[in-house]
Design goal:
It is built from twelve helices and ten strands. By secondary structure, it is an alpha/beta fold.
């Protein structure tokens, strides 16, 4: 990691708080029938970085995403975005505050066109109010939303499919559409749950490029991924979960050498090859 990287000091001194965390969670716990799906003492996500969340199946990664984005409620705990609490905040309000997510299984609205999938996610719908209806102010908002939607479709290579039904897209194209739809909310933090799952190799590099582009445009990215080559390639920081807990975190190169991580997730054969 470059010495000028914002997490360089954290790497040298494990346990040191992040210098500029955008997202913080403390004492976050979620149980199902006595099983602790998430049991996290503290988690910080550094602003303007790509943080990978890895771990074996059942480690609690998706449950953590659900808690942080308002799709589930914890038994205990607190989490904050830019210092403001998100406890008890509905998922759509979390999105409006600047944190959006995608899902393992894409949730495109199959019976809507590709364009309409983005328009329904637009952050501003002034025409829904009485004043907008009386003054016609909704027209300007609607046009601005359409312009932004087409810009995003072009960015993700979907502009030629704007009028096609989303149900006719391939799995990889649906992943791109879901990412584009998330960006219609103009978020600060983007949570991607296994964005590469089910994507053919031809689109994988495109998705990786878009994720890197999010960071370069000033956004913070947290994503769940199983492919360690992908994690090593684009991550600034890696958080490792097992049995609902964070067992390690650090830059990808140090995580690949961590014995506890190797035993819990990567496998002993990887450890034999590690320097």
């Amino acid at each position: 990691m470059n010495a000028d990287h914002p997490l360089a000091d954290v790497e040298r001194e494990p346990g040191v708080p992040k210098p500029d965390p955008v997202l913080c969670a403390e004492g976050l716990r979620r149980s199902f029938g006595g099983i602790h799906a998430v049991d996290i003492e503290r988690l910080e996500v550094q602003r303007h970085t790509i943080t990978s969340l890895i771990g074996p199946n059942g480690a609690g990664k998706t449950t953590l995403f659900n808690l942080l984005t308002g799709f589930d409620k914890p038994n205990t705990g607190e989490w904050r975005l830019n210092g403001g609490t998100l406890v008890g905040i509905a998922s759509f309000r979390v999105a409006r505050r600047g944190m959006v997510r995608t899902f393992q299984l894409t949730r495109s609205l199959a019976r809507l066109t590709v364009l309409d999938n983005l328009l329904v996610a637009a952050k501003d719908h002034e025409g829904e109010g009485l004043w907008g209806a009386l003054t016609g102010g909704w027209r300007g908002t609607e046009e601005a939303n359409r312009v932004r939607a087409f810009e995003l479709l072009e960015r993700f290579g979907l502009d030629q499919m704007a009028d096609e039904y989303a149900g006719g897209l391939s799995g990889g194209q649906r992943k791109l559409l879901e990412m584009a739809r998330a960006l219609m909310m103009e978020p600060e933090v983007v949570m991607l749950d296994e964005p590469m799952a089910g994507v053919n190799p031809a689109l994988t590099q495109s998705l990786l490029g878009h994720i890197i582009g999010l960071r370069e445009s000033g956004k913070t990215v947290v994503f769940v991924e199983h492919d360690m080559d992908v994690v090593q390639e684009i991550s600034d920081w890696v958080v490792v979960m097992a049995q609902g807990r964070i067992i390690a975190e650090g830059p990808p190169e140090s995580i690949a050498r961590n014995r506890e991580v190797i035993d819990a997730y990567l496998g002993a054969h990887h450890g034999e090859a590690a320097p």
